[in-house]
Amino acid sequence: MKSANQNTAVVIIDIINTFDFPGGDELLKNTKKILPDLLKLRDNAKKNDIPIIYVNDHYGIWQSDFTKVGEYCRNEKNKEIIDQMMPDADDYFLIKPKHSGFYGTALESLLNELGVNHIIFAGIAGDICVLFTANDAHMREYDISVPKNCTASNEQQQNDRALKLMEDKLSASTNPI
């Protein structure tokens, strides 16, 4: 199944999240700041028939899908994010076991099936899972964009450092949407 804009896909990383870990409150606060831009990125992709692929941690629920992961993660502090960012029926979703969205997943096969050569990465944490996934995409020779207003980390300085690294070493565009 090819989209009208068949060379690009949006990959949203770990946005369905418990935020229940050391530094989670800071990451939650910073994620809420980028939520309007994440929604704008997602809505723009849908309007332009760009596939949206959610790649998310499984939280130890190995026999899960996004509904189960969303139910597991949803709580009072994050429900605003989860309620707005849950995948739609026409979105793709993959469960990842580690930091990179490519490691142990079908992401590369899906991107090949969709004819994608340009990936727009968004999500959390910018200095860990987004960075590691972008690095793996670069090693697979994908063109990469990581809009700086669509990623967040526990600390802004760490996020900025990761974005600079992706610009300098992965040739990623970090222009905001």
TrEMBL record:
- Kindly give the CDD domains that the UniProt entry links to this protein: cysteine_hydrolases
Which top-level group of life is the source organism from? Answer: Bacteria
Could you tell me which InterPro entries the record lists for this protein? Isochorismatase-like_dom (IPR000868), Isochorismatase-like_hydrls (IPR050272), Isochorismatase-like_sf (IPR036380)
Q: Which Pfam families match?
A: Isochorismatase (PF00857)
**Keywords per UniProt:** Hydrolase
Occurrences of domain Isochorismatase-like (ranges)? 8-169
* GO MF annotation list: hydrolase activity
Q: Which family does it belong to?
A: Belongs to the isochorismatase family.
Tell me what this protein is called. Answer: Nicotinamidase-related amidase
Q: Which organism is it from?
A: Sediminibacillus albus
